[in-house]
Amino acid sequence: MDFFVERGACFVEKPSDTYLFAEMPVPQAVATLAVPTIISQVVTMICNLADTFFIGQLGDPAMVAAVSLVSPWFNLLTALGNLFGLGGSSLISRMMGAQNRGEIKFVSAFSIWGGAAATLLFSLGTYLARRPLLGFLGASPDTYAYAEDYLLWVVVLGGVPTMVSLALGHLLRSEGHARQASAGMMFGGLLNVALDPLLIFGFHLEVAGAAIATAASNAASVAFFAAQYARLGERTSVSLHPRDISFRFVRPIFSVGLASALATALGNASNMGMVHLASGYGDIPVAAYGIVKRIDQFPLNVSMGLCQGFMPLVGYTFAAKNYRRMRSVSVFSWTVALALSACFVACFAAFAPQILRLFIPEAETSALGARFLRIACLAVPLTSVNFLISYTLQAMGKGVQSAALTFSRQGLLNIPLLLLMNALFGLYGMIWTQLRLAGTKKLCYTLSQEDVEKPEETWCVKTENKPSSPKFCGGGGTFLQIVRKKFLRVARGCREIPLEEEEAKL
Predict the structure, then answer these.
(1) What is the pLDDT of residues 143-184, one digit of tens each?
(2) With helix as H, strand as E and coil as C, how does 442-474 read?
(3) How many CB atoms lie within 10 A of CB 125?
(4) 384 and 249 in one domain?
(5) Which of 334, 402, 452, 446 is nearest to 90 (CA)?
(6) Measured between alpha carbons, how far is residue 381 from residues 250, 378, 420 in Å?
(7) Residues 431 and 484 occupy one common structural domain
């Protein structure tokens, strides 16, 4: 990979970095990076629920529905944050593993300023097209004014701070500064929780108050991250100065970031489609579905925090060709993710009515939402597996493969199946669609590799000693065996050694 070629001064890996990424026991290393990230994701998710929670206390389903309508479009800012921030952080981790720090400042500067410029254009387009956009999202005469207020504050005015805060968090985490990244996310989230009741009830701003609180908290997070980089000084190679912007790394950044952005964008497109179809059944189903999607994001954010924590480790070990450690990191993370997912499914299935009543006391909305939640939570373990596969591929720089899997699932299957299930089974058919789609990525992953090379006697990977170009080949076995073997093949760094021989060595 030519972007690892040293240009300019020679940079030497810091001992602390070497120990964390290459020597620390795998459970401890994953915990060091993932636990702060998981905690920040949990706190941030709780804080994101604050808008829905406090607005729900007003007892008006139209207000809750308005926030639900706008939320998928607001979440597209996450796609932009992942495109530039996650793509840049993956490249930085691999540069560190290849003992090349000289180009990190150019990657980071482009990630921040390029992302800010793209988000500014997105916010401007949203403002100009807000009326037809809200109509498409399903805004009714009762929800339109509330939805417009929320859209203007969180996307039009708060879009750039939201994206930049996400990107800065990714860049901090890529160098091993997980605690600083998590602290910034929690600071913004807690500030949102504090401002919500003040603006909603104290100043009687209702939906607009929740939106202002969200925009202000994200702007405060940006200031916090900037202060963290100033404090780190020479301990970071990241540059936030616009003079360091370079377009030489657009391709490697986008090749990884595009996969994550595509997953987020298509997922939100699916949610917007769901909301649009649900609006045909009234404001109450829209409000119930919006609350469930917020709650359902809680375990998924935990899995995402775990994945974002192990991603720098996978990228570093892959670039350093430490494939045994890479496999250990991935398998350990896989086990933890599935165990946590099972706990969340059990909790949601048992306490769905009580959870929904916390967010909206109105009986009809909470009862419908409880039924939705018990269906939606069944997809959590499968979705966690999807995250693990995607983030592993992205950490290795395999953005094209990850994007192809995402598009095959979300782009080719999602919308048609959503329309079909709505036509055949109505509202509940759409909810069950999410469960069916959550399990298709493993199948798409398996099938996509069969097109690369024909089956041989053993499961193997041919790389020609180039970690950047894995080719998979497969043999027989059950579906679950195929999925396991193929994931382990990615996790072990794609060496040309039969699986049985490799496991014997371990």
Answers:
(1) 999 999 999 999 999 999 999 999 999 899 888 888 888 899
(2) HHHHHHHHHCCCCCCCCCEEECCCCCCCCEEEC
(3) 13
(4) yes
(5) 402
(6) 34, 7, 25
(7) no
Residues 370 and 250 in one domain: yes
Number of residues assigned to the chain: 506
335 and 349 share one domain: yes
On whether both 333 and 461 belong to a single domain, the answer is no
**Is residue 18 a part of any domain in this protein?**
no
Taking only the tens place, the pLDDT of each residue in 277-295 is 887 788 788 888 878 887 8
Give the dihedral sign, CA 79/82/83/85.
positive
Closest CA to 261 of 338, 166, 136, 188: 166
Contact 163, 116 (CB under 8 A): yes
What are 50-60's pLDDT values in tens digits? 887 898 888 78
Same domain? For 490 and 442 the reply is: no
Q: Which of 421, 436, 451 is the last residue of a domain?
A: 451
Question: Which structural domain range is residue 382 located in?
Answer: 2-12+24-451
User: Whole-prediction pTM value?
Assistant: 0.67
Report if residue 202 sits inside a domain.
yes
Q: Is 480 exposed, middle or buried (0-12, 13-18, 19+ CB in 10 A)?
A: exposed
Spatial distance between the Cα atoms of 277 and 367, rounded to a whole number of angstroms = 20
Would the pLDDT of 69 be above 80? yes
First-to-final CA distance of the chain = 29
Quick one: 505 and 364 in the same domain?
no
Domain shared by 299 and 235, yes or no:
yes
Cβ partners under 8 Å of residue 363, min gap 6: none
> Does 429 score more than 50 pLDDT?
yes
In a domain? residue 119: yes
Please state whether beta strands 471-473 and 460-462 pair in parallel, antiparallel, or not at all (unpaired). Answer: antiparallel
CB-CB contact of 228 with 178 (8 Å): no
Contacts with 295 (C-beta within 8 Å, 6 or more apart), sequence order: 49, 348, 355, 356, 359, 373
Which of 451, 468, 495 is the C-terminal boundary of a domain? 451
Long-range contacts of 28-33 (CB under 8 A, 24+ apart): 29/313, 29/329, 30/306, 30/309, 30/310, 30/313, 30/329, 30/332, 30/333, 30/336, 32/178, 33/173, 33/176, 33/178, 33/309, 33/310, 33/312, 33/313
Q: Rounded distance, CA 133 to CA 146, Å?
A: 14
Overall domain count for the chain? 2
Cβ burial, residue 468 (10 Å; 0-12/13-18/19+): middle
